[in-house]
């Protein structure tokens, strides 16, 4: 049993590979990961199933193999039973398509495809969480710097400075990070005028 | 507003689909459109099948292949309009170009004959086959190259090696000598030439002055559920065409296409393709968007010619189930466009401007001629 994963996104490919290794039905399977499809190397692997990211431009190359070669992996979308249509649609929505050689168990295909789709979704969630965490961290730094500006300019304590910003945020209906950005921008402006004089 | 998901491939000939978004024609027609930039045709085909897209910019051959039972086929697709004419170019290696020039080959017929000599020479010295790349197996590109090769006495099945490659990778393979040439939609051939990876041998108009290429594909069940939306969508795209043909909009069109959101290609390459003598893309809604049944039949004829389908289909029925000139007329009438009276016309054989019967007045058409003088005639009862 050979599964080939083609995904230009290394981290996501690794996540999918890990998911397949943990799958009960795939014990003893060999899992290959390629960033792009290479026709010349395909026969060395002879995969039973290929999982490919929809964003890979190479998908049409893989798709065309079924026409010239009888034993090439064929798109799952082509011969799904109506009961599997949902799995295929969910996988496409997650951004992944699959190809299998003839005679490979439909149940196994559906199960592997579900794992791949799940991992694609997981990656998207992880990436989303990461960018949110980065944004939160950046906002905290801005707020801290703005607090410092208020503390120096008004001679108040840290808690009082934060309370002032929060009140202003609530009164104006804007996020506290935006208020902090305004304070920093204005303090920059004032500094520049001082420099100019 | 009705929400519509539309897929497109990053090519200049997706112009109408992206213009209608950028210029607000979709919302003006009451449609809330979200565009999806797709990395390959297989995605578009599958997403239309599984209802993840309602409509898409597709190769004209894609819905026809499905209609002929080739490849994955879940659900029905209709094509209410063409998205313009022409737009592809054939690029060859500089080495091959030198050989052609050495043989004095300048016309398409001469270059095909020159290639035949190259093929014979390579076989004599036991070199590899001439390899040509296309973006999709069932594509106008494939049929254009095959027709051209056959005109020079080359057997496209036995004497040429075919590979399917994404346009974005074709230039690399050409530069590295993996392939000898490729056919692709613009602006990728122009970019390959600008980068010195190859030379444009010919573009669509040299093969066929008014060559059908892409159509708007609409998922059949979605179209049946939303018949008014199909007409509205077609109208929005026709309006984009009315904007695109104005000379004063040429710069904006090129800039829009080259944007990251759309084609994501250098402005210089997009402009080179759109310029006179470029890829010959015609976006005129009056002369290049009507879904001629004769176009569908020409393509179906190519599927038969190259042994891709059996000769046992009712080709007229297949063509009419997919191509929908009736919907085009409904969409076009309020825009003041003339409506062709017939659904079919002779393809080829018109070397100068000519007229198509239409109401309220005939349409003056640009030349419609194939390089080999061939004419695909309408059978008149």
UniProtKB/TrEMBL annotation, chain A:
Gene3D superfamilies: 3.40.50.2300, Winged helix-like DNA-binding domain superfamily/Winged helix DNA-binding domain (1.10.10.10). This is ANTAR domain-containing protein. Residues 2-117 form the Response regulatory domain. Residues 123-184 form the ANTAR domain. It comes from the Bacteria. InterPro entries: ANTAR, CheY-like_superfamily, Sig_transdc_resp-reg_antiterm, Sig_transdc_resp-reg_receiver, WH-like_DNA-bd_sf.
From TrEMBL, chain B:
The keyword Heme does not apply. It holds the Pfam family NMT1_2. Keywords: Cell inner membrane, Cell membrane, Membrane, Transport. It is found in: Endomembrane system. It comes from the Bacteria. Its main location: membrane. This is CmpA/NrtA family ABC transporter substrate-binding protein. It comes from Asticcacaulis currens. The lineage of its organism: Bacteria, Pseudomonadati, Pseudomonadota, Alphaproteobacteria, Caulobacterales.
